[in-house]
Amino acid sequence: MAAFAAAVQLGYRYLETDVHVTSDGVLLAxxxxxxxxxxxxxxxxxxxxxxxxxxxxxxxxxxxxLEDILGSWxxxxxxxxxKHDAAVPxxxxxxxxxxxxxxxxxxxxxxRRVHRIRRLTGDRVCTWMGSTAVALLRLHSxxxxxxxxxxxxxxxxxxxxKVPVLDRRFLDAAHRRGLVVHVWTVNDRAExxxxxxxxxxxxxxxRPTVLKQVLTRRGLWA
Length: 222
Description:
With about 220 residues, this protein is α/β, with parallel strands linked by helices. It contains 9 helices and 12 strands.
């Protein structure tokens, strides 16, 4: 929560998190599927009860619930990645309970998971593309036909392995389709500058202070 609070204090109105669900259905705002890398506990979150997971600490802080974030900053918009199938029902329930439909953007790399989110929410929330849809958009940028996309945006890395994903061609193809493009995860100042020049619509970063400096200098911080 301290990290989210720091971003809000800097003036950010858009936050991002992944979500995982414990074995007893509690939805956490957390990136990894295990506790091992960044907490003082070990184990796979999906196989552990919340009574155990709630004791884990990240630099002294407990892992927040997604509803903590949605409830603490009702004016913030939150981009949420459902990391596993089991997280989807709990995610939809959290959005329903907090009445956050108009301020969340939900998605997953799994196209099946994205379709399920849309179905369970009755298409009442903004969604981003799964990996198959992104691949189709990439092919479309090279001149191949593509279907219509129910998503509002594409969220992509600059490259996938050695294969470039984001370039002028991809960005133009997305914009022609009325899609905005968000890029993850960019922590280098020079790369941020290049992406702003390219015309991307959003940048995910672990360095919000640096990103704010770039946007402020460009007159893009409002």
